[in-house]
Amino acid sequence: MNLESLYQDLILDHYKNPLNKKLAENPGISVHHVNPSCGDEVTLHLTGDRSELKSVTWDGVGCSISQASTSVMSDLVQGKSPAQAESILNSFMEMMQSKGGSQGDLELLGDGVAFSGVSKFPARIKCALLGWMALKDAMVQLDLI
Amino acid sequence: MNLESLYQDLILDHYKNPLNKKLAENPGISVHHVNPSCGDEVTLHLTGDRSELKSVTWDGVGCSISQASTSVMSDLVQGKSPAQAESILNSFMEMMQSKGGSQGDLELLGDGVAFSGVSKFPARIKCALLGWMALKDAMVQLDLI
Amino acid sequence: MPLDVSTIKADFPILQRKVRHDNPLIYLDSGATSQKPIQVIDAVSNFYKNHNSAVHRGAHLIAEEATDAYEGAREKVAKFIDGDPDEVIFTKSATESLNALAYSIGNAAKGSPFYLDENSEILVSELEHHANLIPWQELAKRTGAKLTWFEIDEDVRLDYSNIDQLINKKTKIIAITHQSNVSGAITDLPAIVERAKVVGALTILDACQSAPHMDISVKKLGIDFYAFSGHKAVGPTGIGILWGRTELLDQLPPFLYGGSMVTSVTMTGATFAKSPRKFEAGVPNMAGAVGLGVALDYLSDIGMENIHNHEIALTQYSLEKLAQVEGLTVIGPKNVEMRGAVLSFTVDGIHPHDLGQALDENGIAVRTGHHCAWPLMKKMKLVATTRASLYLYNDFTDVDHLITGIESAKKFFLKSGR
Amino acid sequence: MPLDVSTIKADFPILQRKVRHDNPLIYLDSGATSQKPIQVIDAVSNFYKNHNSAVHRGAHLIAEEATDAYEGAREKVAKFIDGDPDEVIFTKSATESLNALAYSIGNAAKGSPFYLDENSEILVSELEHHANLIPWQELAKRTGAKLTWFEIDEDVRLDYSNIDQLINKKTKIIAITHQSNVSGAITDLPAIVERAKVVGALTILDACQSAPHMDISVKKLGIDFYAFSGHKAVGPTGIGILWGRTELLDQLPPFLYGGSMVTSVTMTGATFAKSPRKFEAGVPNMAGAVGLGVALDYLSDIGMENIHNHEIALTQYSLEKLAQVEGLTVIGPKNVEMRGAVLSFTVDGIHPHDLGQALDENGIAVRTGHHCAWPLMKKMKLVATTRASLYLYNDFTDVDHLITGIESAKKFFLKSGR
Ligand SMILES: Cc1ncc(COP(=O)(O)O)c(C=O)c1O
Ligand SMILES: Cc1ncc(COP(=O)(O)O)c(C=O)c1O
To answer: What pTM does this model have?
Structure first.
């Protein structure tokens, strides 16, 4: 493992130019998640129903991993059904818990597989999951999953 | 060090046949001391004035060391002036703190020198001092020293 | 499977030591603290030599390793007691675990299931160690709750005859020892837990003298909280366990406040993480936790079932031998039914302190005194007892030495003419 | 006398370790926890191998030896801080020390000098570590007292301009850090202590970041209570110190209740021993205390004066080097006046977490985050900083590695096209 394989260009690109990083107004739900061990924060706005996640926008401060992961997540689940979003989320979490063992499911995760290297760094897994946990929370609160 | 030199016959004799172990009535002061680490107890009755400790009696439960030491003490200070009693007490304490280094001052301590071996056993020093501490407390409370 | 005690003894460096007059050390004081196998000692050293770093804090390699080691230890503890890792809280000792509970309960606001007032009762027993008595006395004082207690019977077991009065609708907390550190009596937990569930009382178990000695599943016991000390379970000093059921830990306020237990902090207030973090403020005893993990593995590898059976056999043998000593009275059950390897006794005419000293001269380490169970001693009208407490590294020969030691002390102190 | 750092480094086994990509470990995280010299590691092992036994309890030889070792460690601590042995209380950490004080004060009855109510104020500062903030927030809530605080100035030092308002007749407790674990700023204690004496407030010092790094006399400081952690002072984990003045400890109620801290116990109440026993319920972290004694001897043998001067020289050098890194901002005083070897900084365009990771790839261990001083971070409008904290085993080369590491991280994260 070296720095390049942890911080793949794709991660740094998303960090520099995050997608959907502008909170939509009047969302179905707004959730705020914090990583208490480092202070990273994300606010997620979600609008959707049982058939579709119509709008996934966010704002936050944090490291490249947490920011890029949230960016990738917001792009991946936008327009998907809650069930599809949940299986993407589960697939991402599985990859994160693999301790470097899994390359990730390219079909489900798309750009998300760039984070597979993070799973070797226990202290950073929480960073990569911050936005995803916010999504899960938002879907639960909207009663979508 | 062996058992015989710690428990000299004199100690066991005083344990079996303690002196002054019968609380006098209407004492000048009554004090009660406990060794909280083992539960040994002594109650001491003292009557006296600045010229003489007229009556030193006691009752208690405890190991041979604490009982014999209290017995010896009561015998030693009976009829002495508070100042004399205090110098005997100080001499006894010094011997106890000597970690086996001091044989004790035979002139001042009399039978008390039998306890010199106790000073090698840190856990037993408190036993040997129980009655003496009660005496000191009683003299202080009677404003004799 | 019978224990291979000589192999076990060889794992414990201190048991190779010579003490007074070049006597081999015969350690019969495991009820106070247990000795440590080289595996545990080395695990502690190895942590310091290779992985020492503040857990849950650094983003660097050794911080990751330290965190893995520490959380790995938590998993070992969870497995040992059949709990969930998130339910396992590292404290410094059982004493802290029990006080922490008492303070946390005292911190509960009105409306909380833990809230106590003048209409509440806290139930303990006359058998309790001070560590499971005074915290509840003080909590009772602070909240106005009433302290009640089981009395003892002639075998120095709990007297269950009035259990239905003692555990009543007012009873909010039952804090009870699993095994007496004086009489060795094992508590009839099913009777207590069943009745506690009827009235909705919380059950808190002081497992100091049981967790190291028998196979325990907190789930099967059906209790709510569970405390024990690592140092009595061949683990390092300065590490203890508090276990609680998740639903309860979720509702329990924290005890110590500080780093790593918060979700947010401002100058005027803080919100708190979930268990176990909520209950582990500050840099913890990392080496201690790691050592405890290895200690519990050591015990599990030998088998708690095997250890327990060994201790029962030793106890049986000891009870038989002690019964043959004239003038000796065993304090506690005279048979091995629901009884552990803690043997308290008195010998006519010899104060326990003197007996302990005489045994020490022969290299035999026992404990004398009130064993931090002063109310129990007063109830039994005793000032002190001598206590021999046995563990996996003791064998029948150790018991024989004890008996010989007692006999020679009798000769010394009770010889005619004295 | 300048330190012989290469000899010192050789005493610390972990500093011989290779980490990521076979890089030697460059440990710059001593503010979180310090590494341990072999002398301390061996002292802990040796206790377990030869003298392990419950202190203050047994009447046998190894119990005496354990007690001697434990009480000997207390004397070493007393000497180290220039206090009296009976004033030295072993806890599990500074976090416990500070919480213990807050609870003990909360246990004080009306009429006690420690009693707090709605007319009392507790003064802290915006610099505090959570461990010296939240316990006081909670005590304030429990007693109705008002929490007040020093703000910070642009150098991330305390702002003393309103000290006479802050320390007023209502101020009962002043709990303050001796050195910030974020900015490295050292508190102007004489100003605070002098004013505290005028109004009769108690002064409590969080010395976590100072006790291991400078020659301190609690007597000369004129404070009332003092807390630090052994693990930050090359000592074992799970052992901390609370020091207090005898007159105050005599009047302070206990915190943890249990064995060995009583003078009598009945089923309904207990009376308590004097300090330090009153504050040390239960079997303590004996091996930890013994290890801490050896740790403080290790530091004293090198000389606290020498260690402090070494750290100042390192800090001076670091500040100069860091100032040359483009885009880097040091959080805290820019010179070594009243400042310790804790260096927090931010680098434009690189999140601290990412910087920490990049340094770790080169074997350089730093800490990133809010450093358990979240209110301070919010005040400075920061989410996190990177922190390098130096100790006696660090040398100028370590600082050079840090600078090189930062530069290469900048190259990686800020390379054009990204
Ligand atoms: C200033 C300060 N106070 C308190 C603490 C808490 O110390 P511990 O976690 O060892 O209890 C720390 C260290 O984390 C600190 O730096
Ligand atoms: C039954 C019981 N409870 C509590 C304790 C207290 O344990 P510790 O001193 O390890 O906190 C002990 C041991 O001394 C004990 O035997």
So the answer is: 0.96
